[in-house]
Design brief:
Radius of gyration: 12 Å
Number of helices: 4
Shape: globular
Distance between the termini: 19 Å
Number of domains: 1
Oligomer: single chain
Structural class: mainly alpha
Order of helices and strands: HHHH
Length: about 80
């Protein structure tokens, strides 16, 4: 994956665009490379979570939706 998908880059972007206080980002956000997101989603699913709310970066929404569809939904 390219560097734009690395976890630290994603965290910084999430901090910029979200209203979530920085100290709560790990508690309320799933972010990072598609592999990171898929792993976290599966972990939550194994814990019994049935629904997730997806909020994509509005500045890259179509690209993010394409990545989410190909790399998260199809591999679930």
């Amino acid at each position: 994956m390219t560097t734009r998908h690395d976890k630290e880059t994603a965290r910084k972007r999430l901090q910029q665009i979200s209203r979530i206080p920085e100290e709560q980002i790990n508690e309320f956000g799933i972010y990072g490379a598609p592999e990171d997101v898929l792993r976290e989603k599966e972990s939550l699913q194994n814990a019994g979570i049935q629904y997730l709310i997806v909020d994509l970066d509005p500045s890259r929404e179509l690209e993010a939706l394409d990545i989410f569809a190909k790399d998260i939904i199809r591999k679930s």
